[in-house]
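Risk mitigation, structural track. In case the binding assays with zinc ion fail to produce interpretable data, a predicted complex structure has been prepared as a fallback.
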Amino acid sequence: MTVKKILTEPDPLLRQVSTPVENVGEEERKLMDDMLETMYAAPGIGLAAIQIGIPKRIIVMDISRDENKKEPMYFINPIIKNKNLEKNKYEEGCLSVPNQFAEIERPNRCEVEYLDYDGKKKTLKADGLLATCIQHEMDHLEGILFIDYLSKLKKSMIIKKLSKSKLSRIVV
Ligand code: ZN
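Fallback model:
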């Protein structure tokens, strides 16, 4: 496994729409291993392939945040089937937008269909941090960053306000 360089804003590659994976084979599994290693080293709790410059619809995540009990998750070609109307707010950060945090509102629950590490079709019902994290990562597949949800003015105001916030910070 290799730790890769994480691209940061304003790298134009981060704005590229990633393409679906046709076959989950050795190459894809090696990429996921490298992505996981890169994510743990950063450290972060989620990483999309495009963040290391590969425009494929692949995401790795581990929201356990426990060194001794790693719980890696792999999502290939994820599709959101259902989104809850109720919203949830987290103070989000991003490995590709270093040292920037903002409170972002997203549906608090979603159902995701995807292929796992072995290429098997799976469905996951996510809520809380998991739901936020997967939606943040899926935005990367469309070339969207969390700062895109903010106006320039709002962004600076929220960042100022959040410097005193007690909301838990997550980096995905
Ligand atoms: Zn991110």
